[in-house]
Amino acid sequence: MLMKPFYWVLLSSVLCSGNSWATDFELPLWREEVEAQGYVLPKPFGLNISYMGLEQAADINSIAFSGLAIPSITVPLPEWLPEFVLPEVPLSDQDIVIEANPASQHMDVLTLRGDVWLLPFLNFYGLVGKTTGYSETSITIDSFKGLPVQFVPAFNDVDFRLDLDGYLYGVGAVLAGGYESWFGLVDISYTQTQLTVIDGNIASRVISPRIGYDFSHHTSVPLRIWIGAMHQKVEQSLSGSLTQLHLPQKIQALLNVVNQGKNGAFHVEQSLSSPWNGLIGAQYQWNDSINLLLEVGLGERKSAFFTVDFRV
C-alpha cells in the first residue's frame, strides 16, 4: 500500500530533539493506529546540538545607579577655628538622571536539546545551553546632584556595555500536522538564562509558527523547506557592582569620586524592541537517524541557526 506522506514532523531537528531511553511501550501513543492509515511518523526520540548567532535591538526601560554618595569634605579654616566637616551626602535615583539609547545585542548560543513525540501530533522537549554575548548602548547623564552644570555636557552619549554570558535551561512543546507534502507546526518554549559575569537573568517566551513543503516525495533529494515567524517576549533584569563595568575614563573618574566605599551598583531593565521576525529554513535528511538543519532570521532580529539532530 502506498504511504500517504502526512507530516506531524517538524523536521525533527528544527525544534525538537531528545533522549534515547528504552521504553516498555511504543511511542508516540497510537502510533500503530496512525501508521495503519498510511501516515508517516518521525522516530520518537531525538537528541540534537545546536548553535545560534543573533543580533537584535533592545529598548532600555530603565537604568539606574545606587549606593553612591558625595563624600564628606573637610572645609579649610584658620587654625584657631574648630574643624568643620561637610557630611557625606547619599545620592538617590532622583539625583542621577540617565537617558539611554536603544541597545544592540550580540549573542552566541550553544544548546543541547532532547525531545519525545508523546502523541503523533505533540512533542515535548527540554534543553540546556551556554550563552555568550553582550549588550551595548550609549547613555547621557542629564543631571547629577552636586556636579557643576558646566561639566554635564561631557557625559553625552557615553558607551555603556554589559556582558551577558551565562547558562540557560528551558522546556517547550511542538504541535504539528500536515497533508500530503505540506506540513505546519507551532513551537512554544520558555527559557531562563542565569548570567555569570553580572547578576541577573533573562526570561524568554517564544512562539514560532511555520509552514513548509517536503520535496522528497517528488525528487530523490530528502529536502524540506519552510517559512515562518518568531515572536519573542524577553525580560532582561541586569544588575551588579559598578566595579564590574569597564566604562570610559571620563565617566569612570566621576563614579570613582562618588563610589569611594565601593558600594555603588547598577540596575538595568530592558526588553526587545521588535518582538516579531521572519524565518526561512531548510532540513536535509542525511539518513533515517541524522538530520541537518539551517534556519535564518530576517528583520530587526537577524539570526543564523544550525542543528545536527540524531533520532532513534
Task: Give a quick precis of the structure.
With 312 residues, the chain is mainly β. Helix content is 7%, strand content 59%.
Structural features, described:
By secondary structure, the chain is mainly beta. Helix content is 7%, strand content 59%. The chain contains three helices and 17 strands. The chain has helices at 11-15, 31-36, 249-258; strands at residues 45-66, 69-70, 73-75, 84-86, 89-90, 96-100, 103-119, 122-144, 158-163, 166-179, 182-195, 199-214, 223-241, 265-272, 276-285, 290-298, 302-311. Strands 1, 6, 7, 8, 9, 10, 11, 12, 13, 14, 15, 16 and 17 form a 13-stranded antiparallel beta sheet that branches. The protein has a two-stranded antiparallel sheet with strand order 2-5. A two-stranded antiparallel ribbon has the order 3-4. A hairpin with a 2-residue loop joins strand 10 (166-179) and strand 11. The longest helix is centred in the C-terminal third of the chain and has 10 residues, at 249-258. The two termini are 25 Å apart. Mean pLDDT is 83; it is low at 1-23.
